[in-house]
Write a structure and sequence with these properties.
transmembrane; globular; 15 helices; mainly alpha; disordered C terminus; MetI-like_sf; 380 residues
């Protein structure tokens, strides 16, 4: 009787086909180390983070913060003589900022100083919106998803009421109220920026709350939550110790998306005259004030637009990098990785399924069956 032919089976799968990671890349590392490794392995996210940090450092150091002065010599409201028709003096070859790198408006005000002040205010609004919307959305979604019953009914009906109102209209109304309140109490401009971000954040949390609620509904039925409940853990401990850490990825990614939307929303409100008011500048107000000069002096329109697009894009790319870092199975299609995985799948079609819990590769099972059959024949 012919002997069974040995089956050439790889000792182990070179990498996980779902995440593209090799075993040695993840062995012995904590969840935080894996997230950091995946994030810094994403070229787009890292480049976006560098660009965003550059914009933050440039805007903060050029004009300074509070009593701390900056290195730029012009103030946003300082008028002067219009030089060379107000054209930008920025030069790449040779590198030089010149007297007015972004140009001047018709009153001789320096556009670079105005753009840096607008960038500072836009970044502050973005951060405040992210904090407020993230906090409120997480609390509302977590409580409604865990406790269910009347708690879920009340909180979700409140969410539905807010979410059906167009965000621009709601934010414009709240922004106008914030500006009126700050002016009535004669508070400084920074209070207006904080109040605007606070009220925009209070209008932006419902989408995050619904996502967090869905995550809590799923996680509260998992075995580790049942085990903690049977061990006598309180609801607070279960939420903060067992469920909330497993939703950090969803919360973090969606907060970055909310921050990106906040930049565009603040720009729209300032463009409509419902955001930052004179004599202070925001990126949206710069575009609104200089829109009539687009045909004759387009640089007055370009630079604020460049900073708006750069901030929004970098935040979105950072959010994509965080999403891939927390859940690498959601990575976008990679033709090279798909082609490599496809070649291994053609050679060993069942070996790649071994990454699923409780699943044994069919080729290994076949090898074991062949071995058992061969032993039986030898025994007979």
């Amino acid at each position: 009787m012919s002997q069974p032919q040995p089956i050439d089976v790889p000792q182990q799968v070179e990498q996980n086909p779902q995440t593209g990671e090799k075993p040695e890349d993840v062995r012995g590392k904590s969840q935080g180390q894996l997230v950091r490794q995946r994030f810094f392995g994403n070229t787009g996210a890292v480049v976006s983070l560098i660009v965003l940090l550059f914009i933050v450092v440039l805007s903060v150091t050029s004009l300074g913060v509070g009593p701390i002065p900056g290195w730029w010599k012009w103030n946003p409201d300082a008028t002067g003589t219009v030089l060379n028709g107000g054209r930008p003096t920025l030069s790449l070859l040779p590198p030089s900022l010149g007297e007015h790198p972004f140009g001047q408006d018709n009153l001789g005000r320096d556009l670079f100083a105005m753009a840096m002040q607008g960038t500072q205010y836009s970044l502050v609004v973005m951060i405040v919106v992210g904090l407020i919307a993230g906090l409120v959305g997480t609390v509302v979604g977590g409580l409604s998803g865990y406790f269910r019953g009347w708690t879920e009914a009340v909180l979700m009906r409140l969410t539905d009421v807010i979410i059906i109102i167009p965000l621009v209209i709601l934010a414009a109304l709240l922004g106008r109220l914030a500006i009126s309140w700050v002016r009535a109490h004669d508070l400084p401009t920074f209070a207006t920026v904080i109040a605007l971000g606070l009220l925009i954040g209070l209008a932006s949390w419902p989408p995050l709350a619904r996502l967090v609620r869905g995550e809590f509904l799923t996680l509260r039925e998992r075995e580790f939550v049942d085990a903690a409940r049977l061990a006598g853990a309180s609801s607070g401990r279960i939420i903060f110790k067992h469920i909330l850490p497993n939703t950090v990825g969803v919360i973090t990614v969606n907060i970055t998306l909310l921050m990106s939307s906040a930049i565009l929303l603040e720009t729209a409100l300032s463009y409509l005259g419902l955001g930052i008011q004179a004599p202070d500048w925001s990126l949206g107000r710069l575009i609104s004030e200089n829109q009539t000069a687009f045909a004759t002096r387009p640089w007055l329109f370009w630079w604020p637009g460049v900073f708006i697009v750069a901030i929004a894009l970098t935040i979105n790319f950072i959010g994509d990098g965080l999403r891939d870092a927390f859940d690498p199975r959601q990575r976008k299609f990679n033709p090279k990785r798909a082609r490599e995985t496809g070649e291994r799948t053609d050679q060993y079609p069942d070996a790649l399924t071994a990454s699923e819990p409780g699943t044994k590769p069919a080729v290994n099972a076949g090898a074991e069956a062949g071995t058992r059959g061969d032993t039986g024949r030898d025994g007979r």
